[in-house]
Amino acid sequence: MKTKAVRLYGKEDLRLEEFDLPKIKRDEILMKIVTDSICMSTWKLAKQGEDHKKSPNDLKSEPIIIGHEFCGELVQIGDKWSDQFKKGQKYVCQANLQLPDDPSCPGYSYKYCGGDATYIVIPNDVMKQDCLLEFNGDTYFEGSLVEPLSCVVGAFKANYHLKPGSYDHQMGIKENGNFLLLGGTGPMGLLTIDYALHGKVKPRNLVVTDLNSDKLARAEKLYPSTEETTASFVNVADQSLEKQKEALLKIAPNGFDDIFVMVPTEGIVAMASDLLAEDGCLNFFAGPQDRAFRSSINFYNVHYYYTHYVGTSGGTTEDMRDAIALIENKTVDVAKIVTHILGLDAVAETTLTQPEIGGGKKLVYVEKEMDRQAIEEIASTTKLGAILKNNNGIWSKEAENYLLEE
C-alpha cells in the first residue's frame, strides 16, 4: 500500500513524499485519511524539530508524519482488533496517548501514523489506550475538529472553585459567574466561546478580548448573547495593560471567577492574576515555546483570596467522547472555526507560516492537490462559492461533499 504524506525531517524541514507502508501487523489498523486540520502545536513541532518533547531524536533518518487532528475510514483491521472496530466506519483519534514513561503521540512521534497522509498505519499503542474512537457526525471535517474541542472540554473541567466553608474543590467553571477570555478570537478561543455559551455550565457574563477588530467583529456575529449568558467583545488594541485592566474591572468590579489566557506573554499572565475574583481560577491555556517562560502572579491574593492557577494541554479520551457527543448532538458548531481549505500539497508551507496567515482552522483534504484558499475569498460565482454563500460563508456538509466529489 502506497501513501502520500508530509513528513518532518528536522527543524522547519517538512517534505511531501510518496512511499510504501509496511503490511499491518495483527495488532495494527490501516486507515484511509479524509481530513486533517492543522494545529498550532504542529507549527511548534516543526519549529522545534528534534528538540520537541514528543519527537524522536533521529528525525533525519526516521522522519515522522505530522498532523494529529484527523478523521477517516478504517480499511484493514488486524486480527487482535477485528471484533472491536468496523471497516468503512468513520473514526477519530485521541492523539494525547498518555503512555507510561513514553511521550509518543500520533502526529508527533510515529513513522507511519499522522493526519497529513492519505493512508496510515495506526499502532497498537493507540488502541491499547482506547484512543481510536468511532465518530457518527455528518462530515469528516467535523471529525477533524473533535480533538481541538476536546482540549477546550478538558480545560473547562480542570478549572475549580472551593465549596463554601471548606477546602473541597468544585471542579469546572463557576456557574453564573464572570468568565474572561484573554486573546480569544483564534480557533481555540472561538471553541471556548461556543462551549461557554452552550455547554451545561454557563457563566452569567462572558468577556472576550483581542487586538484585532475584524476578528472581534466576526466572533461577535458568530456568537451572540443567549438568555443565560451575556457575551461582550472588547477591543484592547493600543491600550496599555493597565488601561486594559481598568476597562475590564468596569465590567466585573469584583474580578473574574474564571480566566482563560490564550496568549503566552508575561504581561498578560500578570494582568490576569490581578483580575481574578476571590476564589477565582486562572487557566493558562496558551502553550509557550520557551521552556523557561515565567511571569509574576499576585501571591497576596493566593493567600488571602484563595485564587488558583491551572494549565491544560490536550484532552483525555473522556474529553474526546464528550466532544464527539457535543458535535453529533449539534450543541457546539465547530464549522464556524474553519477559515481555510487546502490540499496535501499545501500543508508544509501552511504549517510553517500559520502565525502569518492568521484566521481560524486550516482544513486539509488529503486526497486533493489544492492551494490554500480562504473561504471568504472563494468567488460566489463558482458552485462552491454559491454553496458557501447560502450558508452565510460557513463551511458545511454540502461544501465538503461537493469538494470530495468534484
Tell me about this structure.
With 406 residues, this protein is α/β, with parallel strands linked by helices. Helix content is 30%, strand content 25%. It has helices at residues 40-48, 124-128, 140-144, 146-158, 187-198, 213-222, 241-251, 266-275, 299-304, 317-328, 347-352, 354-357, 383-390, 397-405, and strands spanning 2-10, 13-20, 29-38, 64-65, 70-77, 90-93, 119-122, 132-134, 160-162, 169-171, 178-182, 205-210, 230-235, 256-261, 276-284, 308-311, 338-343, 361-365, 373-374. Strands 3, 5, 6, 7, 8, 17, 18 and 19 form an 8-stranded mixed beta sheet that branches. The protein has a 6-stranded parallel beta sheet with strand order 13-12-11-14-15-16, sandwiched between helices. Strands 2-1-4 form a 3-stranded antiparallel beta sheet. Strand 11, helix 5 (187-198) and strand 12 form a beta-alpha-beta unit. The two termini are 24 Å apart. The relative contact order is 0.14.
